[in-house]
Amino acid sequence: MTALPRVVGEWTVDDVDRLPDDGLQYELLDGALLVTPAPTMWHQRAVGRLYQLLLAACPRGFEVFFAPLDWRPDRLTSLQPDVLVVRNDDVRDGDIGAALVLAVEVLSPSTSRKDRTLKRSRYEEAGVSAYWIVDPAEPSFEALDLVDRHYVAAAQVSGTGSARLELPFPVEVVPADLVSPPD
Predict the structure, then answer these.
(1) CB of 78 within 8 A of CB of 70?
(2) Tell me, what's the pLDDT at 25?
(3) Dist CA 62 CA 93 (whole Å)
(4) Domain named Putative restriction endonuclease: which ranges (predicted)?
């Protein structure tokens, strides 16, 4: 059994690197440790479909990744967006440090508040160009674009509605398609 490191004060990325690989998701937000359980099947289905959708539309100069992959803009923050898009020039060994072009969070009952408030605020503050929130329970989709250092709504659809987006690159998202069972 691996013990969690004893930390006095703020957690750092070095502390997170020493945590056990036990199926839980460990993230760090401004020195505070966030722990969530493994994702559900619905969550994973939506993540997989979003990854495929973005990969198919991804132009040269960008790369699409999915969690777990750490985004570490500083020593007190280590977040794992469910899907992320970065410029090729920003890929480094081990993790991503530069501002993301897109961060996507797929909501789960245990992560909804964190994704809608804490992560949204941190992504906005760090200059992440676009932030998408997917709720597989509804199903619904919300896209936010960074304009003058603040997120503004770019699209909000549910069910079989369609969102046509330009950021991070042209792509169309239909929430129901992200969660429907395979044919």
Answers:
(1) yes
(2) 85
(3) 16
(4) 14-172
| Whole-angstrom distance, CA of residue 57 vs CA of residue 180 | 21
Amino acid at 46: A
How many domains is the chain partitioned into structurally?
A: 1
The answer to whether residue 20 is domain-embedded is: no
CATH assignment at residue 173: 3.90.1570.10
Domain presence at residue 8: no
Residue 18 lies in a domain: no
pLDDT in tens, 124-151: 999 999 999 999 999 999 999 999 999 9
CA distance linking residue 102 with residue 3, whole number of Å? 34
Distance CA 71, CA 66 (A): 11
Q: What pLDDT is recorded for position 6?
A: 55
Residues of the chain with pLDDT below 70 are 1-8
Q: In which residue are the tokens 């750092």 written?
A: 12
Cβ contact 23:76 at 8 Å: no
In a domain, 115, yes or no: yes
